[in-house]
Amino acid sequence: LVLAESELETVPREITGHRQVVASARRSGKNASRMILDASQHHAAMRRLPDGARRGRPDLVHLFLLTAMESRAAKRGQVRVAVHTRNDDWIEIDPTTRLIRNYVRFCGLIEKLFETGAVPAETPLLTRTAKRPLLPALDAMEADRLIWLDETAPRRRPAELFAKDDLDRHVVAVIGGFPHGQFQTGAPKTAERVSLWAETLPTWTVAAELTVHYGALGDDA
Amino acid sequence: LVLAESELETVPREITGHRQVVASARRSGKNASRMILDASQHHAAMRRLPDGARRGRPDLVHLFLLTAMESRAAKRGQVRVAVHTRNDDWIEIDPTTRLIRNYVRFCGLIEKLFETGAVPAETPLLTRTAKRPLLPALDAMEADRLIWLDETAPRRRPAELFAKDDLDRHVVAVIGGFPHGQFQTGAPKTAERVSLWAETLPTWTVAAELTVHYGALGDDA
């Protein structure tokens, strides 16, 4: 599962001096430019940013990861997750990690990851690699099936998305990690573009549909 | 969907004077006894409480609600949720509510709910009723099917839990809102006791399994 173009970044330089950002940095005792941008805290400051209305959503990343990594399919070892961000950061998560449940602590973890490149330093459970644009990264995965979730795509029933064979195939599914709007990148030609609902579904709802149905295949195996 | 015996409460009187609680109240500018107990903030203080290792988990309630209320089944109007707590508080949520995504703000909302009984005051989306012990409350629901999710119960395949008929029946499913351990109350005799996995599954994973499979019934209707 790849969360693509997710709105996860540190506070951009343009607004580190904004009153709201300075206040939130002081409150948490952090350096403003190392803080994770969070729309719920930095809303006023973000009005100055391009795409300000969709940026700063570490909560979506957290909910995506909790849903995917704690699914029955993941507990069977059938799910791996990666997070791609608007700035082409690429984050890989060791599937054996027990992800932090608390949102505030999760943000602290990501701040540390952006600072150091891996947490913990010794046996990293989260790693941030050099910049990886989305399409080449997907290409390098050599998927047998590449599913691209997009509300504008043809509608499919989630229960019919996977077949028994998919347990033995390398299936890569790409979910948008932004609150609304469209992918900035178009889907690769080899991708099956799929929509699961008439309107936008939240990131974690899509992750739940995919992991629950994929996990159900394993019950018959 | 009923989240039962959830670990949601304000800071108990025994520990409002604890150094860690006082510090967290000062930081957030709140009255200690009106703050929601949160294991991630009040861990040291909670060691003094009975059941201290499982209490203070508003994060589980939040994740449960986000998963259930944003599911495809909920968007079809097929899901209603209620939250029962360790102190027999009973919280009902208007299904049309767009639940707050941010965890910190969600805790603020629940604090206000505990203080006033309904938020917002005019057209309440969340209401907290008088104390309602779990079993009489379930009884009053007059379910056609009462499913009780419990890791010690006989194992069932989630994909086979619901049948077409269930769309027209009043199905009530009860999920434990605590991080580990057992229900304090036994299941009613009329309940189907069901387990979906060999080990404990997180609250939101169970909610995802139920809502995804129930939602899939609607695709054929």
How would you describe what is shown here?
The structure is a homodimer of 221-residue chains. Chain A contains 7 helices and 8 strands, in the order βααααββαββαβββα. Chain A is of the alpha/beta class. Chain A has an 8-stranded mixed beta sheet, with helices on one face. In chain A, β4 (118-119) and β5 form a beta hairpin. Chain A is globular. The model of chain A has no long low-confidence stretch (mean pLDDT 94). The interface between A and B is medium-sized, with 35 and 35 residues.
List strands and helices in order, with pairings.
The structure is a homodimer of 221-residue chains.
Chain A: E1 2-6, H1 19-28, H2 39-46, H3 58-69, H4 72-75, E2 82-85, E3 90-93, H5 103-116, E4 118-119, E5 126-129, H6 134-140, E6 145-149, E7 171-176, E8 192-194, H7 203-220
Helix pairs in contact in A: 1-2, 3-7
